[in-house]
Amino acid sequence: MANNLELLQSFSHQPLMSTPATQDLPPPGGYSEVKYRRYLPKRGPSGLVIFAGITAVCAFGFYRVAQGNLERRELKRENLWSRIHLIPLLTAESDRDAFRRQQAALNREAEIMKDVKDWKVGESVYNNTKYYTRPSVVVVPEDARQ
Amino acid sequence: MTATRDPVFTSTKFVDPTPAPKSVPPVEEIGLTSAPLKSASFFIGQYCKDYNADFMLCKNENNDPEHCLKEGRKVTRCALDLIKKLRENCDAEFEKHWKCLDVKNQDYYQCRKEERQFNSCVFEKLGLQKNIPGSPEGQPQINEKRNPIMKPHQK
User: Per-domain residue ranges for chain A?
Assistant: First the structure.
């Protein structure tokens, strides 16, 4: 073997192993830890909490809507009764006016039909005595026409 | 309301000028617009309850306008009497309330402040109270409710 090495050296122009051999090693103290986990900062309340919160808000809203509906019903009742209390008063007033106009119409009819024999003023067109609302026929005087 | 129709023309306005026959005793008409009537309506309903009920029973008997003229006059006189009393005792509050109603679309809920003052004045002076029939029991009436949900939208 020694002869072979010498023979090899004699052929080559450069020395074969001029520097001592070195191995690739970790730095002193070792490598730093590898961060293979994803780093995400905290992102607020969990889904369950958000879901519960939305449910609570909606429940409160619907409760208020229901209360408001009940209140609107009472407002309607109040409005209705205020009108009911006024009905007799307004009816009495309009009845007086209706009676006045009706009498005037009957007088006009009597005046117009005075020459017709056996004419009954204000006779009902129905064969009974029940009250019925007469058709509103208005004779507008000449000077009131426009 | 009555089944009568006002003879209203689209082209001209005509009011029959013929006065009422002499056989009907004259009565002063109430002569109020809708806002004062609405403001006083619950008190009219309470103060004139007997006359109003009498009149409505009479109308139920016969719908002829001639049939209930007497009862109708009583109703109007009673309402006039009440309005006169309101004017004597709670003039300022009454005026404030109906003017508010006039401006606020005649909604009671928009004029609660004025209404409370008016109601308390009428209760003190005349002893009349606003009662809404059919209101749920065990809770304040809608006009006395504190912090209601339905509030005026504009101050």
Answer: 47-115
C-alpha atoms less than 13 angstroms from C-alpha of B103 in its C-beta half-sphere: 11
Span B129-146, pLDDT tens digits = 999 999 999 999 999 999
Closest residue in A to B45 (Cα–Cα): A85
Interface check for B108 against chain A (CB to CB < 8 A): the answer is yes
- pLDDT tens, position by position, A27-79: 888 888 888 888 888 888 999 999 999 999 999 999 999 999 999 999 999 99
Is the Cβ–Cβ distance between B118 and B94 less than 8 Å?
A: yes
The number of distinct structural domains making up chain B is 1
Find all residues with CB under 8 Å of B109, minimum gap 6, and list them. Answer: A75, B142, B148, B150, B151, B152
Between A21 and A127, the higher pLDDT residue: A127
Vertex B106: Cα angle to B119 and B38 (nearest 5): 50
User: Min CA distance, B111 vs chain A (Å)?
Assistant: 12
From the candidates B8, B18, B34, which should be mutated to test the interface with A, based on the most A CB atoms within 10 A? B18
> For tokens 């006045």, what's the residue?
A100
Q: Taking CB atoms and an 8 Å limit, are A102 and B65 in contact across chains?
A: yes
Q: Is residue B110 part of a domain?
A: yes
Q: Which of residues 111-150 of B touch A (CB under 8 A)?
A: 132-136, 141-143, 145, 148-150
- CA A146 to chain B, closest CA, distance in angstroms equals 7
Interface size between A and B, measured as CB pairs under 8 A:
146
ipTM over 0.85? The verdict is: yes
> Is position B45 within any domain?
yes
pLDDT in the model for residue A83? 96
* Boundaries of domain holding B49: 36-130
Which chain B residue's Cα is nearest to A130?
B62
Residues in chain B: 155
3-state secondary structure of B22: coil
